Amino acid sequence: MDHEYFYSIMNGEGTLDYEIYLNTKTLLSCQKDFKDFCNRDELQFQVVHQVEEMWMKLIGYTLLDIDDHLQQENTQRVITLFHRVHIALRLMTEQLALLETMSPKEYQEIRLQLGNGSGQESPGFRSLLKMHPHIWHSFKSCYLEKKSLTVEQIYNSQYSHSEAYVVAEALMEYDELFQRFRFVHLQLIHRSIGLGAQSLKGRPVELLNEGLRARFFPELWDIRHQMTDSWGAQYGRVRDSIGGH
Ligand code: HEM
């Protein structure tokens, strides 16, 4: 195939209504010119990162909406919008696999193009890291304190699969999926540059392990082991066999 010919038509003219509404002219010029790529994998590298930024923009925008609906106790909206956030986070995690089709050597060539850039500078990621305390505050004040409920009650002593419980589980799902993204991203790093490496800022890559331990909603995680401890207490630390031996 004639590469030059297809390169010249791939970005379109930008004049049709579809192109105008979606601003494809600008969108498709957000990647380097084909002639400037350092190798044939660099377009994928840029596209995956850019798409990830778009998903994070959507997630952040949706979380602002969710926060408003939490304050109005509009539970059905909260659940539907969290469903959207969960799908977008799963997409973010799944598409990391695209970058595993790039060989370690090709990535080293791309890495030389990145200056001292770091994923920690991602505007989407940095915004998301600031939003969860607000979500927690709205949930706690409108679904717990206002109704004189505690996390323990909605999960255990007054468990009724209530609205507060269902919303809490949507928060949990968000937290778990966010951690999963971080975990899969670490596996991607392991596979492409190795965990013993230094980041482009000179930091040990292993520092990312700290992020893996971060929890957005620790009270929702803690209730699980608190219940296990209190339910298990009636049997003591080691249980008798149910077979009587
Ligand atoms: C081959 C592909 C990739 C490699 C080798 C890689 C490598 C790294 C490294 C070494 C760091 C640590 C940076 C530091 O300490 O300053 C990092 C952080 C990060 N990267 Fe990537 N990355 C890759 C792909 C991606 C993609 C596609 C995204 C999409 C969002 C991404 C998002 C991030 C984020 C958000 C952080 C900060 C993570 C945190 O603080 O927990 N990375 N990446």
Account of the 3D structure:
The chain is mainly alpha-helical and 245 residues long. It has a domain at 47-98 and 120-222: Methane Monooxygenase Hydroxylase, Chain G, domain 1 (Up-down Bundle). It has helices at 3-10, 17-22, 24-27, 42-71, 75-94, 104-111, 123-144, 151-157, 163-192, 208-213, 218-233. The protein is globular. Bound molecules: protoporphyrin IX containing FE. Residues 48-49, 52, 96, 99, 107, 118-120, 122, 125, 182, 185, 188-189, 192-193, 199, 201, 203, 205, 207-208, 211 line the site of protoporphyrin IX containing FE.
> Quick one: overall form?
globular
Q: Which molecules are bound in this entry?
A: protoporphyrin IX containing FE
Number of strands: 0
Largest sheet properties: none
Radius of gyration over all CA atoms, rounded:
23 Å
Mean pLDDT: 94
Structural class: mainly alpha
Strand content: under 5%
N-to-C series of helices and strands = HHHHHHHHHHH
CATH top level of the domain at 47-98 and 120-222 is Mainly Alpha
CATH topology value of the domain at 47-98 and 120-222:
Methane Monooxygenase Hydroxylase, Chain G, domain 1
The CATH architecture of the domain at 47-98 and 120-222 would be: Up-down Bundle
Concise structural overview:
The protein is mainly α. The chain is built from eleven helices and no strands.
Structural descriptors:
mainly alpha, Methane Monooxygenase Hydroxylase, Chain G, domain 1, 245 residues, single chain, 11 helices, binds protoporphyrin IX containing FE
List the SSEs and their pairings.
Elements: H1 3-10, H2 17-22, H3 24-27, H4 42-71, H5 75-94, H6 104-111, H7 123-144, H8 151-157, H9 163-192, H10 208-213, H11 218-233
Bound molecules: protoporphyrin IX containing FE.
The site of protoporphyrin IX containing FE (HEM) has 24 residues, from helix 4, helix 9 and helix 10.
